[in-house]
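Technical note accompanying the year-one report. For the benefit of new consortium partners, we illustrate the data format agreed upon in the data management plan: each record pairs a sequence with a structure-token string. No post-processing was applied to the example shown here.
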Amino acid sequence: MKKILLAVLGVLFFTSWCWAQNYYAFVQVQIKNDRGTTFLMNTITKTSDPETCEHILSPVRQLKDMYPIRTECLAGREWEDLLGGLFADQPASTAYISYVDPNGYETRINTKVIAGSNSSAPGLPVDPSIKDTMLWAEAMIKALNKGGIKNARIIYPRKK
């Protein structure tokens, strides 16, 4: 009987370990500059459970009256597949910032720009120019350093 009980517990443990998934606290802030260009800054923090994900998003949601903000807890195989490269610090189509926040959560930040009416994809988020991205990334690193985050680094884009 003990062997059966241990086998069942082992299977349950192994199954729960195999099916463990991450949750991603996603924050998107829309920023318009003086020239009328609209930027989307995306912050994604990896957590191990939905409660922590919601806890991270809660204070951000209070800013919705001040800024156009979108927040969401993301989970599931599709998000693991989509975000796995970012959290492995693999190069993407554009530069992004990688750091561990003061609570020990891995966080990634990137920026997109809303394509103008003369674009092939008007109104959709696209990668900004490499020059604009690098200016943004350097400014973000400085801001993160001032905020006490000393491990932030730029992950440069993959070569085309």
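Partners are asked to follow this layout when depositing records. Residues 7 and 13 are 10 Å apart (CA to CA).
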